[in-house]
Structure formats: structure tokens, C-alpha cells
Amino acid sequence: MSLASGRPILSIPGPSPLPDRVLRAAHRASPDIYGDELAELNLSVMAQLKRLAGTRAHLAPYIGNGHVGWEASAANLFDAGERVLALTSGHFGRSWAAQLAEMGIAVELLDFGLAPPDPARLAERLAADKAQDIRAVLVCQIDTASSASADIAAIRAAMGDHPALLVVDAIASLGSAPMKMDEWGVDVLISASQKGLMCLPGTCFLWFSDRAAARGRTSLTTPVWDWHLRANAEALWRFWGGTPPVQQIHALDEALRMILDEEGLEAVWARHHALAETVWAAVDAWGRGNPAIRLAVADPARRAASVTAIHLPGAEELRAWTAAKAGVTLGIGLGAEDPPNALRVAHMGHCNAAMVMGVLGAMEAGMCALKVPHGTGGLEAAAAVIAARA
Ligand SMILES: *Cc1c(COP(=O)(O)O)cnc(C)c1O
Q: What would be an example GO MF term here (predicted)?
């Protein structure tokens, strides 16, 4: 028999669960897109998005997903043939680098395997760049596949006075983990609507500093990608390079109100961190009975707040079991050393203690049903974290 009927729990790292309020905000007919009301709402959403990123920098919105954000930023920053250095900690950093290489950009990888970037190695590499022709350092704040979290302030510090721009993919981290774009000296920030922002997939955003803006246009900049046209827009259609995504603007307005004005950004970050610790506690307890069960990132300070990658024997069967029997969809072991024996638990965006306890409970039930050896006390350990943090 199956016990999966009821409200499904989606614990994959994007798209993340949508609040009913966000869905309701989007559920409306399109208005006159030349009217003042939508134009004003759009301006307010742009201002909220800058608050979310901790910046007074420029902001260009696009219709598209994270991959569009990667391409749009590169098309504004680089000429074909220019050199960039990508710090990679897993599947997403490497895919980003590969996409830019396809665009003709000379991407060099500083690869950390599935571990977070080491700022000392970056400093060493930049010191060797005597000609200073590396134009940018690229890094994912959270690589969603490995769940490694980069220390952005330390990476900026390691860049010293090398003139390269710092370009950060915050697609899996914005709205989940701290981001202080201006304070940390980030030149370009890339994010999208469907993860920590608790919105529908379909929009992405580029925040960029004066230093990045000073690049002007490059040989790769075409009218659709040109961020100056969007960031300096007056008419609503200019922001979006055509018809605005009306329903998504309403959804973003609602989600950003929930994050910034109701719960508060610091509280949102603290909630994500506490929920992450809840998952780590359960996995550590399971691992005490079976060393093959373990967290992918050893250092707690460098684990992601929004997603946890786990090595677990029989993970593929466990994912199938929790989906069929308990209504819980877990993330695949994307980019892991041994994908069938790895999975990811997302705790991203609209996610609370009960959802995480439900996910962990379903996993433990599945391990019992499938006879995956594991230590006892996982749920108690998780509950203790919630008791201590709440
Ligand atoms: C999800 C994700 C992407 C890709 O975003 P899409 O919307 O799937 O194109 C890129 N980078 C990171 C870190 C992500 O988590």
C-alpha cells in the first residue's frame, strides 16, 4: 500500500515549493501593460530585489532561467577570446564554465572537485597573472549539486588589487543564505526566481556594479542581452525587452513582501541555516550506524543553507520509495561521485521545520523498509536541533 496521498512535499533544489499566496498573486488576468499601476509595481519589485541582494547597484531583469542569466551576464562582460577564471565546486560551476566556453570566452577552471573554493589557491593563481589579463573570477555561492558553499568575502579578499571583476552565481543562495553584494565587493550577481525567491520559474536577474557597467558594450552584446537598456529603462517594456511577465511581477511582489517585510531577511537566513543543521544532525546520527551514510561537505561552515548533498547507499531506491510511499520527492545525486548512491535534500525557500521533519521521517521509514543499515536516533537528533533553534 502507499501512504503518499495528501499534500506532496517537493524537496528538490529548484524549483522550490510555491507559497499559496504567491500562486494566488499570480492568478490574474493581464492588465493594460501600458498603464501606470503595473509600471509602479515593477519599480517597487526592482527596489525590493536590490534590498534582497544588499546593493544599490544596477539591476537588469530578464525573462528566462538561470542559464539565461549566465549567458546574459557574459554577453555584457566579455569579448570573445577574453580570459576568465572559474572557481568550480561541482556540476553547476562546471556547466557555467562550459556554457561560456561555447560562447568563445577563454575559460580557465580552478577546480576544487566537490569541495568549496580555497581562497589561498585563488590568490596564488592571480599573483601568477602578471599581465593581469584575467578579466573576471566566476564562482557559485552555493553549488547546488555538491552543496558546497563558497566564502564570497574571503574570495574577494583573496583577489587583492587584481583588477578582475567578481561574478557570483547566487541562483541557489539568494533568499536562503546571506548576500551583501556591496559590502563584499561583488561586481555582478546572477540569480533567478524559482529557488530561494519562492517564485515561479521564468525570470532571472543581473545586479551589476559601476565597475562592471563601465565595460560598456562588448563584441558579444546584442540588443536582447544589453543590460544597460534594461537597467536604465524608463518604459516598462524596456525593463523586460518586450512584454513584461505580468503574472510573475505580481508573484515576485508577494514573495519579496513575505521575505523582506514580513519574516525579515535575517530571520529567513537564520531559518534556512537551522533547517540545514536539522538535516545534518539526522544524517550524522544515521552515519553513526553506517559510515557509508555521510554528508558530502565535511566542514559545517562551508555547507549550503539551502540544500544538503548526502552519500547514502541505495539512494536511488530510497528516492523511489519516498515518492511512491510517502509523498516526498528528494533530489537526485546530480554530479556526485556515485550518483545512484547519492541524493540531495532541499530546504530552500518556502520550507519549515515540519516539512524538513517530514522529509527526514520519510527517509528513515524508507531506509527501514529497504533494509538500508543506519544509526538510530536521526529524528531525535533533528528534533533536538529544532528545539534548540526555534
Ligand atoms: C539551478 C541553478 C542553475 C541553473 O538554473 P536554471 O534555472 O535551471 O537554468 C545555475 N546555477 C545554480 C547554482 C543553480 O542552483
A: alanine-glyoxylate transaminase activity
